[in-house]
Structures are given as C-alpha cells and as structure tokens.
Task: structure prediction
Amino acid sequence: MHTLKRSSGTAAGIAVALFLTLVFSSGRLCTQAFAAVTEAKIGFAFSMTGGAAAYGATQKKGADLAVEEINAAAGPNGLKIVPVLEDDASVPQQGINVFNKFINADKVALIIGPTLSNTAQVTDRIAQKDGMPVLAISNTAPGITEIGDFIFRDSLTESVVIPYTIKVAKEKFGLKKVAVFYGNDDAFTMGGYVAFKKALADAGLEVVTEQTFAKGDRDFSPQLTQIKSKNPDAIIVSALVEEASGIVNQARQLGIPASVPIIGGNGFNSPALLKNAAESAEGVIMGAAWNATSTLPLNKKFVEAFTAKYGNAPDQFAAQAYAGVHIAYAAIKKAGTATDHKAIRDALAQIKDLDTVLGAFSFTPGRDAGSTPVVQVVKGGKFTILGE
Ligand code: 1QQ
Result:
C-alpha cells in the first residue's frame, strides 16, 4: 500500500513533471518561433571610389537616410537595420572581396548593391550560389536577375527605359538618322548599346555611324569628328558618367550644335554630368526611372528630408537606394528572420504594391523592377521631364 501510494505518488510526480516539461518546452519553442527579430544586418556594396564613385556617393546618402528614418520609427523593440557599408571600388575583384566578407564574416541578412552591373555580373553568382538574397538598386544591364532566383533589382533596366526614350525623342525631334557611340568594355555600356540598337531598328531610325570608346578614355575627338562628318540628327551614347561628361563637353567643343541632341541611358542620370559638362549638358536627353518632380506624397517627403539633411536634392540613384532599403526592410520584417535567407528571398518575391518613392512597387516575375520610365532633359542645370 505504502509502496503503491509512494509509487502512485511518484507516478503523479512524473506526470506533473512531464506536463510541466511539455508546457515549458513548448512555451520556449513558442517564444523561439515568434520572438520578434530586433536586428537585421544589411550589407551595402557601393562604389565609393573609382570610376563609379559619383553614383556610390549618392546611393550612400539615400540608404543612410532610409536606415536612419526606419530605425527611428522602429522604437525600442522594433526591427532595426544594422548597416554594414563596404566600398566595391567600381571593380569586380573588390566586389568579390566585399561579397565574400558579407556572406562569411558579417553574415548579413541581405546584400544591397553592388553599384555597377559590370561588378554585379560576377558578385551575384557568388551570392546566388550561397543562397544570399541580393537587391540591386542601380544595375540596369541585361542578364543580372537571370543569374538566379536570389537576385532582385529595383532599378529599371535599359531594355525597358531605352525603347521608351527613343520613341519619345523620335517624335519630339523628328529624328531620322542617328550616330551611336558606346563603351565596349563594360556590362552596362554594352547592354545599353544592344538595347539602343534594337530600339533604333524598331523605331525605323537609320544608324549612320557606330563608334566605340574604352573605360578611362579622355579624348573622344577622333570618334566625334567621324560622327560630325556624318551629320546625324542625334547622337546616341551608352556611357557611364565619367566618359559621358567628356563626350558631351567635347561634342559641343567640336562644334556639333545643341540642335543635335545627345541621348543617353541610365549612366547619364548623375549630378556629376551636370557639374562636369555644365553648359554643354543643356538639352541632353536621358531615360530614367525617377524624377525629383514626382508628386507622390512619399516622394515629396523624401526630397524634403534629403535636401534638409544634405543641402542638395536627391538624384535617381539616391531615390532607388532609399526605396531599396524600404523594400529590403519590408521583406525582412515579413519573413520575421534576419538569418533564414530563403525566407527573406521568398518575402522579397512577394512584395506587392509597396508604397515607395518609385511608386507602388512590385517585382516582375523575373525579379526586375516593375516601375514606369520617364524621359528627362537637362534644363537650367537640372533634370526635368522632357516635354514640360
Ligand atoms: C549599371 C548602371 C550604372 C549606370 C549605374 C551605376 O546602370 O552599371 O547597370
């Protein structure tokens, strides 16, 4: 009896202990599963030095502002971004070092960048192989998101922007024959060239001459002299901003009149063009994903906050960086994790009509930006919408 009692006591004790263990362990499981993630590291790979430094400088400003605002709004228990910035130096090799650091040492939740497509076409393969999500905010060359399902971009591709730019410019200037001038050693300038060629053919425009240059060239007069001799109605240029500025300056110096518009792609959307080509930049046309005059309420707020913080208005690259941080943040928050990269990838893919400075944002099924292009013209030292 006694033994039985004791044993039944023991049985009851075991039952209670089991019950408690279950309650506590499931309780612990619950807290683990639902514990709000409070910090997410984002790796920013921007070109802070080298040929693309003008883009990187403004990307950093846009991203910093977004991180600052998001972290302030998160409150003491909300999800905060821990930014890790590295300079990709505008070259693929340094981009590789930066991506390896983000993946293996920093163990970031997601990577934003790199600045150039030329770097992305190498670095993004590393990220894809590792299952690390990447959100490009300025890569516009073809083939970047095709690297794999972990690669996204909020930057509108040249293959979307350029046909629209050519259509609008053809109507506006009554173009019939054009010259084409492009960089033949960079993923972006080559991608732009291919997109221009197709758009020109589709629009029925004659190409009177094709000229090329290489990264770092300073003297464009031999090619521009050739172009001038062919008397084109417009000069189509696929170039990053350093070379674009030199081309625009030297075209006007060589006496190609302002009545022959220079039409560029995404590389032209930098204030560095306005600064370095100054007067010569007046009338230059370029396709873009964003313009500062956009009347979206969120955009007005962004332009005001950016101008107050930095003393100058944002450009397209700042806007895409700012939007990119918000898109990444929304995905990490929805995934509820800073470490499960597959869950973050899936949440990115599900972003739908997110309110951003680029408009209501969704990715295309191919993970490209689903936004609409604008055509800009430089007027009074500013990027304005063509036709306004
Ligand atoms: C690219 C670009 C550049 C002009 C942006 C920095 O669009 O490399 O894809």
Remarks:
- Residues 1-11, 16-33 have pLDDT under 50 and may be disordered.
- The pocket of (3S)-3-methyl-2-oxopentanoic acid is lined by residues 52, 55, 115-117, 138-141, 188, 240, 266-267 (CB under 6 Å).
- The first strand starts at residue 39 and ends at 46.
- The CA atoms of residues 137 and 155 lie 5 Å apart.
